[in-house]
Design brief:
CATH superfamily of the largest domain: SPOUT methyltransferase, trefoil knot domain
Order of helices and strands: EHEHEHEHEHEHEHEHEEHEHEH
Number of helices: 11
Strand content: 15-25%
Distance between the termini: 34 Å
CATH architecture of the largest domain: 3-Layer(aba) Sandwich
């Protein structure tokens, strides 16, 4: 179980994993980054405990450690208990959620083949560079029975701190992987029996409900960046272009909202 240790000194070197998080949680391929997975708040920390990511340590106020209760038995790591003021000094900003956990990440977490294996519905993303949109997509994918997420060109890091927070930790449990070649690697999905559907508002696309009524056994739903949407190359690489019907004068939705509608319409029945 976690060993709780009280610390009042903001300069204690044992807190270095949590220091200046506005820069310390950058992706490993950026200068100065350490590549940690950082969970904020009791709900997300609990999900980190149950994920494959090895926890290093925790930092929080006493009340939040009490809220974790028996979940602290799941990890054999130090838990540093401090005041809200000292925690803010260490982190670099005031943290309303009152607790953080830091974990190492495998590189890469999964392969494309591992995510595809056994999947029925997949989300395929292109150019989703906004961390909050990405986190929301993962949260929706978890809620609506999507089996995994595949990342094409231009996507941000799902394990960036803000994405983990916005996803409510679901990015830690939904399998994901990054394509090595885009959009060429979409052929891997087709070879495994997936029908690739590109979501786009253009006029020659078919209704999402028409796709649903055709009930493909396996479907990969492609979504692009909010604003520009999918590139022409990605749409051309799909099997079908699909739209969400909307009234005249409205031609787009937030990408996470569009994803939620598409996931709901194409998922298998949930018990």
């Amino acid at each position: 179980m976690a060993e709780l240790i009280t610390i009042d000194d903001r300069d204690d070197p044992r807190l270095d994993d949590f220091r200046d998080l506005s820069t310390a949680d950058r992706r490993p391929d950026r200068p100065g980054g350490r590549g940690f997975v950082i969970a904020e708040g009791t709900v997300v920390v609990e999900r980190l405990f149950k994920s494959p990511y090895p926890v290093r340590s925790l930092l929080g106020v006493e009340r939040r450690f009490r809220e974790l209760g028996g979940d602290l038995d799941l990890v054999d790591v130090p838990g540093y208990v401090t005041s809200a003021e000292t925690m803010a000094d260490v982190v670099g900003f005031h943290l309303n959620r009152g607790i953080l956990a830091v974990a190492d990440r495998p590189v890469p977490p999964s392969t494309v083949e591992e995510v595809i294996d056994g999947a029925r519905v997949l989300a395929v993303l292109e150019g989703v560079g906004d961390h909050e949109n990405l986190g929301s997509l993962f949260r929706n994918a978890a809620a609506l029975g999507v089996d995994g997420v595949l990342l094409g060109a231009g996507c941000s890091d799902p394990l960036y701190r803000r994405s983990v927070r916005v996803s409510m930790g679901h990015v830690l449990r939904v399998p994901f992987a990054t394509f090595g070649s885009w959009p060429g690697d979409l052929e891997l999905l087709r070879e495994r029996g997936f029908r690739i559907a590109a979501l786009t508002p253009r006029a020659d696309s078919v209704s999402l409900r028409q796709l649903r009524d055709q009930t493909p056994e396996k479907v990969a739903l492609m979504l692009g960046a909010e604003g520009p949407g999918l590139t022409e190359e990605a749409i051309a690489a799909a099997d079908v272009a699909v739209r969400i019907p909307m009234p005249e004068g409205v031609d787009s939705l937030n990408v996470a909202t569009a994803g939620a509608i598409a996931f709901y319409e194409t998922r298998p029945p949930l018990s």
